[in-house]
């Protein structure tokens, strides 16, 4: 700037500037009198200039016409957003005006899943199958908000099937509230709420859910629901998939990182549930996480092709080592155990496991279905399937029909005992209430009589006094 | 700056300059339009997702830059309303066309472009290996995609396109015809192929797809109405017959011969063979060392046969295959392991049968394989 200005000042001396203030050189200096600046009244326009002017007019008309045509052409074509954005120079864009991207490119080798996914911005898909779960949702969302894994890396997918309560309404409301929160750190990534009814015939109450006879059919239906959810929600940008039941009561906020840190293909924690005092305080809950045993393999060979072995029922004695029973409350939570079947309460798996085709068999796969079949299939494809015996999360305790019966019985018993005790008291000590009443009335009678006596005596005394006085007066008179 | 005559010159702007300026403006305007992405119809815009984090089977709104991206909305998908009917056109059902690709054949793309099903209902999904060959194929594929999606006519443009890259361990080794078909390489090759198919399928299926059309990258000729024709049968899994055109030196004319031998009905011999095998061994079709005596659909095609004649199948090939989305959603996938001594597409047919879906073939409805 400076050298340019100074060189300029050499050409046009500043002290003469006043003479040029209106752009015209004035006075006698005439340093730069290149063209003759004389006033010439304009006569007829020269021919070449007339030609130029008509050219300009034609040019302007052509431009306007071109723009109008362009506007209407794009209007009739598709909404005219392009033309509009040109007129507004893109300043008014937004709202209805947007451009579409139709091509997506993803390199799946970037989403294989690593031990420290939160540092590598690895996205995790949380899958939650739901059915008549309205009552559990507040608890679930409390857990969700507390997760320490970066929320923007968590994509949520819910499957609501065959629900008669307001699961869908509560779910939508809760999720929308979270996304509308002021705190950006609370917002989750993609949220899919999927509805699909399978026409489940089995009741969802605890008794019919866990009855042995209903198991095979129920597990196959559950498997279908899980597969529908996963296949509709898994995207090319997911590195991890986390399955979580809605009725988990207590789990560490860091559960995603804790499980991910092990860097296994499929990993499950131990699942227990708290119990009332009279039932022993706590109990293993998820018996679907186990290691295969020879007994079970032999049993499997004897069964029909479509049979499904379910754990935790006396009908199939498999003698398998269960993850749940190996828990030591003071054990190292990082201890790992190889598994063949897994439970579905809380599964963290690398997305590639599902991409390569491992799913929840809705048929009898090596005599297993759903999550147990999932574990088996993952093993079949040489994925690592691991359980953590001393890392425990707690499933909500819902009293079973038996428990409720037990509790009712216990209450009845308590009431009966109370009544008996009262009876016994009565018998051994006799009822003194009547006597007390008698005594009381007797006392009262006595009191009343005494009072009467008193008043009578008082009256008598008064009369006596009067008589006495009269006598005295009489005596005085007389 | 320092020119004393500046203002004078401005006043005397020549009309020629003005004309040149207007012309320049028009020129710039032209390029403004030319360089912007193509416009899409209202119906396409209506189905677009509002956030990049969305099912890949729909296009999404490009962020215009500036301003923070809003958190993704709560999206509802009612899968009870996703239909798969014999008349997909009438019900505007979404098709997901999936192709595992190792080499790009221009004829394949040309064949896609001539499909008579509305392109705005078709999503294309590709998976390519991360090898030198795969990189080349990707480049060529992307070139053709850009040409169609950006500069092509609206009716030619597909709803959305997903390109996936993955190195599947062990990598799909040489694609040479002879090397590829060696028997000992088959299990490894087909397991890798199965993984590629599953990766492609389960990353792209999404909540809106009604039908999945599997079409191999080397299938270069299909009837333009193949989607409507196959869907008409209302079958869960339906496979046309895959043939190959070649120069018949004896007849001195173009001829055709059966190509895909994975569409078959089981035979007692094959079942016996399977029984003698270990649980991890696989049965293969089309090898003299392993005569299965299965009924092969490839040989059942008749010159004068009915075009829409159906044949129930026990094993299917992947050259061309129309599958109801429900089948895959229920869990039927391409086993990368020995499933009842079957693998990949043949294992898929078996798994679908275990789930209660019956595959069907059309011996007289032909598609054509590239001839190398």
From TrEMBL, chain A:
Gene Ontology biological-process annotations: cell wall mannoprotein biosynthetic process; protein N-linked glycosylation
Transferase among keywords: no
Record flagged with keyword Amino-acid biosynthesis: no
Database matches in Pfam families: Anp1 (PF03452)
InterPro entries: Mannan_Polymerase_Subunit, Nucleotide-diphossugar_trans
Family listed: Belongs to the ANP1/MMN9/VAN1 family.
The protein, known as: Glycosyltransferase
UniProtKB/TrEMBL annotation, chain B:
Pfam families the UniProt entry points to: Anp1 (PF03452)
An annotated GO BP: protein N-linked glycosylation
A GO-annotated cellular component: mannan polymerase complex
Keywords: Golgi apparatus, Membrane, Signal-anchor, Transmembrane, Transmembrane helix
Membrane topology: Single-pass type II membrane protein
Subcellular locations according to the entry: Golgi apparatus membrane
Annotated stretches, region: Disordered: 48-75
Gene Ontology MF term list: alpha-1,6-mannosyltransferase activity
Protein origin, superkingdom: Eukaryota
PANTHER family associated with the record: MANNAN POLYMERASE COMPLEXES SUBUNIT MNN9, MANNAN POLYMERASE II
Family, per entry: Belongs to the ANP1/MMN9/VAN1 family.
Name of protein: Mannan polymerase complexes MNN9 subunit
UniProt organism field: Chaetomidium leptoderma
